[in-house]
Amino acid sequence: MAQRLALQRLLSLPARAPLAAHGRAFGTSAGRGSTFNVQDGSDFQDRVVNSPKPVVVDFHAQWCGPCKILGPRLEKMVAKQEGKVLMAKVDIDDHTDLAIEYEVSAVPTVLAMKNGDVVDKFVGIKDEDQLEAFLKKLIGA
């Protein structure tokens, strides 16, 4: 309960300006076509919940050290799947409502979504073998 209250307090901090306002591009070099940053709730609905492909959702924060390790590793593994799965990146500081809705109590939290439903989840860092198994289970390979 204390963790949840601490997270809710943390998530209630004022949102920062979106990256685009600072002239930086959204997206990443690894898996450019399969990885995207969630812009808002309707973008999440359109690109994640309504996606015909399975989606890995990476809830992270700029201040989170483990997130900085997991994010690029996960992007690399998603890119290896050659378009069979997408990756949505959700910054919990910018999208508090989504973090609360999906009961994110720590970062990094990664959800596996298929047909709009959460079918798997993990919290913390995983190595490449564990990520590969997680993705293969999601895409049914």
From TrEMBL:
PROSITE patterns, per database record: THIOREDOXIN_1 (PS00194), THIOREDOXIN_2 (PS51352)
Keywords: Disulfide bond, Electron transport, Redox-active center, Transport
Pfam entry (one): Thioredoxin
UniProt-listed InterPro entries: Thioredoxin, Thioredoxin-like_sf, Thioredoxin_CS, Thioredoxin_domain
Residues covered by the Thioredoxin domain: 24-140
GO molecular-function terms, A-Z: protein-disulfide reductase activity
Single biological process term from Gene Ontology: cell redox homeostasis
Chain coiled-coil ranges: none
GO cellular component, one term: mitochondrion
Family per similarity comment: Belongs to the thioredoxin family.
Protein name stated in the entry: Thioredoxin, mitochondrial
Organism, scientific name: Orthonyx spaldingii (Chowchilla)
Gene designation per UniProt: Txn2
